[in-house]
Amino acid sequence: MSNIPNELKYANSHEWVRKEEDGSYTVGITEHAQELLGDMVFVELPEVEDNVSAGDDVAVAESVKAASDIYAPLSGEIVAVNEELEDSPELVNSDAFGDGWLFRIMPSDVSELDSLLDAEGYQEVIDEE
After folding, report:
1. Given CA atoms 88, 90, 95, 101 in this order, what sign does their dihedral have?
2. Which of 84, 35, 86, 44 lies closest to 64, judged by CA?
3. Which pLDDT score, from 0 to 100, does residue 22 have?
4. CA 129, CA 126: separation in Å to the nearest integer?
5. Rounded to whole angstroms, how far apart are CA atoms 31 and 8?
6. What CA–CA distance (Å, rounded) separates 32 from 1?
7. Which residues contact 17 (CB under 8 A, 6 or more apart)?
8. What tens digit of pLDDT does each residue of 55-114 get?
9. Among 22, 26, 101, 128, which has the highest number of CB atoms less than 10 A from its own CB?
């Protein structure tokens, strides 16, 4: 069973979202998603200052098994990317909810958070797969 931290919000497409002190939100893929993908070999991240809409494919995670699109769980501006992943994509596998984060977004519409899942709701999504 995957670790699903209660303090995070989740998208059906297996991204997690964490609010930061500056009002931005850090986004990564869940432990469940990285387990399905297997060992990461490359992560293509969005550009800082890109404006994205919720549901847009904004990044790609490539593993030994497959390449998978990563979707923006919120609309807004990309304000940071995890440059550590350029040299160490395996951080997504070893620390999906920490050092393996993908990007930060400054939301343009925080009400979109209401459409994301809590930990219990995300567990139900996994159970149905």
Report:
1. positive
2. 35
3. 97
4. 5
5. 12
6. 8
7. 8, 9, 10, 11, 25, 26, 27, 73, 74, 113, 116
8. 999 999 999 999 999 999 999 999 999 999 999 999 999 999 999 999 999 999 999 999
9. 101
Q: What is the pLDDT of residues 21-36, one digit of tens each?
A: 999 999 999 999 999 9
Degrees to nearest 5, angle at CA 55 with 67 and 127: 70
The two tokens of residue 105 are 């977004």
Geometric angle at alpha carbon 17, from 126 and 48, rounded to 5°: 130
Q: Using alpha carbons only, how large is the chain's radius of gyration in Å? A: 13
Quote the CA–CA distance of 53 and 108 in Å, as a whole number.
9
Is residue 86 a contact partner of residue 59, using CB atoms and an 8 Å limit?
no
pTM score, whole prediction: 0.96
Contact 24, 106 (CB under 8 A): yes
Distance CA 108, CA 88 (A): 30
Token readout for 66 is 């497959």
- Output the CA–CA distances (angstroms, integers) from residue 62 to 16, 40, 49, 73, in the order listed: 18, 6, 23, 19
DSSP state of 99: T
